[in-house]
Design brief:
The chain is an alpha/beta fold. It folds into two domains: 189 residues, 3-Layer(aba) Sandwich (Rossmann fold), CATH 3.40.50.720; 190 residues, 2-Layer Sandwich (Dihydrodipicolinate Reductase, domain 2), CATH 3.30.360.10. β11 and β12 form a beta hairpin. The longest helix is centred in the last third of the chain and has 20 residues.
Length: 447
């Protein structure tokens, strides 16, 4: 379909292939993984790398998405984590347990377990470990010829982003599909809103607001038998090398929505620069590592549009998780399952060209299942989709904001993309690993 022939209804109904980039067309390609395996496409062999709550949930979503999926392998660093996931997925609590086949030789642990599980005959993998490991796992999966569902964020530093972009290009060369865990791009309410933004309902985007404000999250008190490495990985939220800080690990969802709105409206897929504040005001105990508990970032796009981004994890504070997209004719307020269009009087905008407001009232879908439906459709039809670049850009948007807050410097897109910052530890082994100092604006260098 060409841009001129795609209607709003087409935009909303098209699967994830249409959600990528401007949401206007799908990419075609051959299903090389199945062609090389010689197997029928009515059986998709799935492996999961990273078996915490998100990995287990994603496996359930994939099983629900299609009766053709067979879960045949799992890998995780820790025996207790993979044991819990395996126990649940093979139990009577899982209505799709008859499509779960997890013998001991395909339930693997250790830092190298991702490599060993990929030695099996897999068509698709779910990557759901802590974000630091995502770039290396994505590269290994693509090199093995697997289609991929990759959780967000896809990296924690610019070095990881560049690796993901290389893996994305490799996936294109191999004819592989990649879908990311930015599930709002697969959600009916958001897609309805984006279709209207694309059609000019709010005019030219001038500014936007992105919020993820909430209370604190879980923390596992350190045990005497845990080394520094194990303690940090089990409390990965609180270490930048593992999570990217909560602006990257969590707030990336909201920033991805803003980038999406900008892309369908003006073709801009990322901001040009970021200026930020942030700090560690409430979670000051060393048990919470060294990350910040609040950020405020001003993002500026090349067109002159801006985004004011705010995120915090502080108990006792007002919660707000949503995006507000403001244009010359009106504004959209978006959150999961809800989209509210307000049109300025006399603007000539609005859904259908009038000035009446619009609210999403249709039945919403389950985006966590839909993202797997869309990936599986792409795999089986051969109409490829690759979301790796767009999620890498949204992840780098968040990383750029963190870099600006940590250093107190305005950071440009090119500075962030080409930065030498690499948070990889000296080695991957259970032993000593000092906690970095809390970043201090004006003192922490911009690398």
């Amino acid at each position: 379909m060409s841009e001129s022939t795609v209607t709003r209804r087409d935009f909303v109904k098209t699967s994830v292939a249409g959600a990528s980039a401007l949401g206007l067309m799908s990419l075609s390609g051959t299903n090389m993984a199945f062609a090389s395996s010689g197997r029928s496409m009515d059986s998709i062999r799935l492996g999961v790398i990273g078996c915490g709550g998100r990995g287990t949930g994603a496996a359930m979503n994939a099983l629900e998405a299609s009766p053709d999926v067979r879960l045949v392998g799992m890998a995780d660093l820790f025996t207790d984590r993979i044991g819990g996931a395996r126990g649940y997925l093979t139990s009577n609590d899982n209505p799709w347990r008859d499509r779960v086949d997890l013998p001991d030789d395909r339930v693997l642990t250790g830092f190298d377990s991702y490599q060993r599980i990929l030695e099996n005959d897999l068509d698709m993998v779910i990557l759901a470990t802590t974000p630091h490991f995502r770039p290396m796992h994505l590269r290994a999966a693509v090199e093995k010829g697997c289609h991929v569902f990759v959780e967000k964020p896809v990296a924690v530093d610019p070095a990881g982003i560049r690796s993901v972009l290389e893996s994305s290009a490799m996936a294109d060369e191999k004819g592989l599909s990649i879908v990311a865990g930015t599930q709002r791009r697969h959600e009916t309410s958001y897609r309805e809103a984006m279709a209207r933004i694309r059609d000019g309902a709010i005019g030219r985007i001038v500014t936007s607001e992105a919020y993820w404000n909430q209370g604190g999250l879980w923390m596992h008190p350190r045990r005497p038998e845990w080394s520094d490495m194990e303690w940090q990985i089990r409390n990965w939220l609180y270490f930048t090398w593992l999570s990217g800080d909560h602006i990257v690990e969590q707030h990336v969802h909201n920033l991805d929505v803003v980038n999406w709105a900008m892309s369908v409206s003006s073709g801009e897929t990322h901001p040009d620069k970021a200026t930020a504040v942030g700090g560690r005001q409430v979670r000051t105990d060393p048990a919470y590592g060294h990350i910040y508990d609040h950020f405020g970032v001003l993002y500026e796009y090349a067109s002159g549009a801006t985004c004011m981004s705010m995120c915090r994890q502080q108990d006792g504070t007002t919660a707000r998780v949503e995006e507000v997209i403001r244009g010359t004719r009106g504004s959209f307020t978006l959150r999961p399952g809800a989209a509210d269009l307000r049109v300025a009087p006399g603007s000539g905008g609005g859904a259908g060209g009038g000035e009446d407001p619009w609210k999403f009232t249709d039945q919403n879908n389950n985006p966590y299942v839909q993202e797997h439906v869309d990936l599986l459709e792409a795999i089986k039809s051969g109409k490829r989709v690759n979301e790796a670049k767009q999620v890498a850009e949204s992840t780098l948007t968040a990383i750029m904001g963190r870099m600006a807050a940590y250093t107190g410097k305005t950071v440009t897109w090119e500075q962030a993309l080409n930065s030498k910052l690499d948070l990889t530890p000296p080695s991957y082994e259970m032993g000593p690993l000092p906690t970095p100092e809390v970043p201090m604006p004006g003192k922490t260098p911009l690398v």
